[in-house]
Amino acid sequence: MRSKFGSARLHDALAGIIAGSDYKAVADALITAIGQVVDHEGTCLLAIHRNAGPVVVHHTLEPAGQKHYLDRYLAGPYLLDPLYQLALQAKKPGLFRFREELPDRFRASEYYKQYCERTHLRDEMDFLLPVTKDTTLALVIGKRTRMLTKAEIGRLALTAPIIRASMQRIWQDWAVHAGHRQVDDPVHRRLTECFERFGEKELTDRERQISQLLLRGYSSKSIARELKIAPGTVMVHKRNLFGKLNISSQYELFSLLIAELEAGPSKRRSR
User: Fold this and answer.
1) How far apart are CA 67 and CA 73, in angstroms?
2) pLDDT digits 0-9 by tens, 3-26
3) Architecture of 197-263 per CATH?
4) Alpha-carbon distance 215 to 108, whole Å?
5) 3-state helix, strand, coil in the chain (%, to 5)
6) Where are the chain's structural domains?
7) Does the model's pTM come out above 0.90?
8) Distance between CA atoms of 233 and 206, rounded to whole angstroms?
9) How far is it, in rounded angstroms, from Cα 33 to Cα 16?
């Protein structure tokens, strides 16, 4: 595909980034510029907080896409998202291809089947930019029609300094003028508590650790590496936790978690 690097529209967009008077103008110009660097089918800029749920700063999705990709995601499934987990890490990649940073069994996870697969994204590039000690901006660039080419990935890497500087400008204005909320988020606190305490009445601490990793798409071997135990021990714990929860599949494990996220901590099932 012919590069648009030398196009007048790209340079107009770069000028718009520089001249933008508020975060929305800068974000609009940034996405226009990215569209000249790589063809894509939608972008989303999220503020991912350590102590609050993700907040959408800007997106280019149609209303139906917003309902499916964002509203469902923000209702709780973000807790299982590899991008969300990467954003919370102390050491995080700046630019990466989503498919290259996934747990080894992620595409077999129910989160992938119930959420990611339904987005119809074939490929995705992400930028992560820490903006405070507890907040990271995440820019998602999605492809539905085909995979990204090496040339497109190379162009995104080449323009990364401009993209990060633009994200920083967007954050500075958005945080001041658009109601930046990070201190107290009761919904996120409830969802996090439900996830962290999922199965506490039935499972041991180790079994709960393993259930969380299973839900995030880790295989038994990778769980063993993560927890520094033998793969056979993981299998024993997995069999025991399935028995205690009276389930026989990871689909049922995922369904139990979603039911508890929807019910809240005060309505956890008792057995």
Assistant:
1) 9
2) 577 788 888 999 999 999 999 999
3) Orthogonal Bundle (1.10)
4) 10
5) 60, 10, 30
6) 8-177, 197-263
7) no
8) 11
9) 9
Q: Which helix (H) or strand (E) holds 18?
A: helix 8-19
220, 241 Cβ separation under 8 angstroms? no
Query: Angle 5-8-13 (CA atoms, 0-180°, nearest 5)?
Result: 85
Residues 85, 66 contacting (CB under 8 angstroms) = no
- Spatial distance between the Cα atoms of 146 and 25, rounded to a whole number of angstroms: 29
CA nearest 152: which of 165, 137, 141? 141
Q: The sheet that has 55-59: what strands, in order across it? A: 55-59, 43-49, 135-143, 123-130, 95-97
Domains 8-177 and 197-263 belong to one CATH topology: no
What tens digit of pLDDT does each residue of 219-237 get?
Answer: 999 999 999 999 999 999 9
User: In whole angstroms, how large is the CA radius of gyration of the chain?
Assistant: 20
Is 3.40.50.261 the CATH number for 8-177? no
Structure tokens at 268: 């956890």
Using a 10 angstrom Cβ sphere, with 0-12 exposed, 13-18 middle and 19 or more buried, the burial of residue 90 is: exposed
Provide CB contacts within 8 A for 2, sequence distance 6+: none
Residue 109 near residue 250 (C-beta atoms within 8 A): yes
